[in-house]
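Hmm, what's this shape?
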Amino acid sequence: MKRLSPFAFLSALMGLATTLMAGPAAGQAKQGTPAKQVLMVTGQDYPGHKWRLTAPVLAEALGQDSRMQVSVVEEPKFLASPELNDYDAIVLHFMDWEQPDPGPRARANLKRFVEGGKGLFIVHFACGAFQEWPEFRNLAGRIWDPKLRGHDPYGEFRVDIADTEHPITRRLESFETVDELYTCLVGDRPVEILATARSKVDGKDYPMAFAFSYGKGRVFSSPLGHDVGAIRNPAVAELFRRGCAWAAGLAPVSFRKKVVLIAGKASHKRGEHEHEKGVLLLKHCLDTSPNIEGIETEVVLNGWPDDPDILDDADTILVYADGWEVHPLFSTPECREKIGALMSQGTGLVCIHFALAPPRNEEAEALFLKWLGGYYKDGYSKNPVSEPDVTPASDHPICRGLKPYSTREEFYYQIRFGEDEQRVTPIVTARLPKEDPKTETLAWAVERKDGGRSFGFSGGHFHSNWRIDSFRNMVLNAILWTAGMEVPQEGVRSTVQ
């Protein structure tokens, strides 16, 4: 946290201003690239809007994109300061029709700021922040008209994405929220409507997000965000974050992580190598877990996808299938090249059980070692059915919430790791074989040189073992970790029937 330096002519008016330093997130600033400076201007509202509660929550949501450094000033008259030009985007988060707006100097400064190529993000009731300034109608695109019905009664409604191609809303899905559905915006400036909602009072559709250019600058506006709960809605927070990034001149990034789960064809008797049932179970757990959010899952059945483009925007890919010459990732030279390109871009990889075994040739094994850090080596690795005590092996994030267990399973061991074993972190181990026990790694994690993450687990022969919490949740933790997500401190919580 830090305070903004006060200015002589504003020192008596300045409130607390803080900078919220963004933590790790999907939109990492490139090394050596300075973060965009975003200033939220707040500090006054009528009693129905609690800016002291909402401003910190909004700033935190925006700051999750580490390409943006968010500062907060609690006095709208700061808009008159020449230091406004130190910022790349302004977030307006104030309104009070009982007080005058910041004045002509602030108006002119804000107009020059945006017109000259900077960004503006207008949140909720800030659409009425300059009631006596005619140009604000043009600068804001749509403004509050006090002569109209203000909004539907506070409550739940659906927000529909109207433009799936705009950078702000690409890959976003329609969502439910609890908020005020504004019906009071007017303006005739052409804008790009990004999201709408249908009023339960009059049955009409109203804009919930829109964007346009103003001079050389960009403006994003949304009447959503009445209170803390509305801003904390994950879909609203992502919409705001992406809209602010776009206004600041950044390419919006999705904070929803995409996981593609590939199931191989059936090959064993019932209850063994149940690849389809296994990935559907994992999808169910990811979709219903009470302590994770921001993740979307796609399932591919019967091996390599018919449309490989489904993998292009995946954050991690899980393969649960038979290996060797029928391994999905090596189905054709094109498949191998596709996965190799994704790995070089940092896409995550998770391989379960027989999917640890690449085709039995030196070229495939070398590639797999590079991608996964280890593999099942025919003639070297072992795979007898056993019942060992399985123990978490480190404090790695994938180990969060795991407990020791024992089960009957065809755990592979004596895995072939590369010479650079320092990059391999054991996740669970067991003493195998029973006759001459040694500590063997049954699951491992790798941080690859290309920036991606990989995880291998030799269990998964018997479908019934997915009922074991630590068996199942370890794989769920690994999916999050390889996708670049934070693993909850208690691990992913999941249940199965």
Observations:
- The radius of gyration is 27 Å.
- Confidence is low (pLDDT under 50) at residues 1-26.
- The chain has two domains: 18-247, 257-482.
